Amino acid sequence: MPANRRCTPRCLCDLEAKVLGPRGALRAVVENLSAGGLLFTGKETLAAGQSADFEFTISGASMGLKFTRLEPTSLAVIQAFAERSPKAPDLTEGT
Fold first, then answer.
1. What is the pLDDT along the chain (95 residues), one digit of tens a residue?
2. In sequence order, what are the beta bridge partners of 56?
3. Where are the domains of the chain?
4. Cβ neighbours for 35, distance < 8 A, ≥ 6 positions apart
5. Which element (helix H / strand E) includes 69?
6. Chain-centre distance of CA 29, in angstroms?
7. Would you say the C-alpha torsion 61, 62, 66, 68 has a positive or negative sign?
8. CA 37 to CA 46: how far, in whole Å?
9. Do residues 51 and 68 make contact, with C-beta atoms less than 8 angstroms apart?
10. What is the pTM of this model?
């Protein structure tokens, strides 16, 4: 069984997003989010290891990605959102 390699808790969400990759802009939905990455669904996927920019808005209230570069202010917003949101199940346990 693989060990859980996540260092930060994921929160459940339903955020419309735009993925800016080498083939242009793609529409997606962010299903869960943490300071270390996110899970999104869309009509297209990205190749493993491929870099892309994501645009989404966190208001007041399937594919996993690891963040490799975040601006400090973006990281702080994601961490605050994750802390106050319901936690996502750990899909790596028991597999």
1. 355 566 778 888 888 888 887 778 888 999 988 888 888 888 887 777 778 888 888 776 544 567 777 888 888 888 888 888 877 776 555 43
2. 17
3. 11-84
4. 8, 67, 70, 75, 78, 79, 82
5. none
6. 10
7. negative
8. 14
9. yes
10. 0.57
Write down the residue that tokens 């997003």 correspond to: 17
For 50, the token pair is 């491929």
Per-residue tokens: 14: 């339903």
Residues facing residue 92 across a β-bridge? none
Around 66, how many Cα atoms within 13 Å sit in the side-chain half-sphere? 8
In single-letter form, the type of residue at position 60 comes to: G
Give the per-residue SS3 of 44-66: CCCCCCCCCEEEECCCCCCEEEE
DSSP calls for 6-50: --S--EEEEEEEEEEETTEEEEEEEEEEETTEEEEEESS---TT-
Q: How far apart are CA 44 and CA 84, in angstroms?
A: 30
